[in-house]
Design brief:
Layout (H helix, E strand, L loop, with lengths): L8 H10 L4 H10 L7 E3 L5 E3 H7 L3 H9 L6 H7 L2 H10 L14 H7 L5 H14 L3
Antiparallel strand pairs: 1-2
Length: about 140
């Protein structure tokens, strides 16, 4: 299998940056380079973020769904924002430390659920119960 060249760093940074809130630009950039869908940008010090991660902590369901429909890899943070309770529960049951594993920019899982608004209320309620029961350590 032939190794492809690395994606242009400026393009990756622009894509991830725009995934915080600019769906139209995300669509344009993904049409230009399909490999961006799972590209990761390091904001510094190991603060890695994908476009899906950006959309997730910003509560941008529209961008998250678009990315998932185009092959983005679903993670627990996106699942929390999207209100996918069964996925979040299964992940935490399998790996309890996931409850306290920070996402991009150090943003906690529970904040991603808060960003999901009404669609993620069941996830937020579940996470709040776990935090009360297990504590924050």
């Amino acid at each position: 299998m032939e190794k492809k060249p690395a994606l242009d760093a400026q393009l990756v940074e622009e894509f991830v940056g725009n995934a915080h809130g600019n769906l139209e630009r995300v669509k344009e950039l993904l049409a230009q380079e399909a490999g961006l869908v799972n590209a990761t940008w390091d904001w510094g010090g190991g603060d890695f973020e994908t476009a899906l991660g950006a959309a997730s902590h910003m509560g941008r369901r529209d961008i998250a769904v678009f990315l998932l429909e185009h092959g983005a890899r679903l993670d627990i943070f996106a699942a929390a924002m999207l209100g996918k309770l069964e996925i979040v529960q299964a992940a935490i049951e399998a790996f309890p430390q996931a409850l306290h594993t920070p996402g991009p920019h150090g943003i906690p899982l529970i904040v991603h659920a808060e960003a999901g608004g009404d669609d993620a209320k069941a996830v937020l309620d579940y996470l709040q119960r776990l935090v009360l029961h297990r504590g924050t350590s």
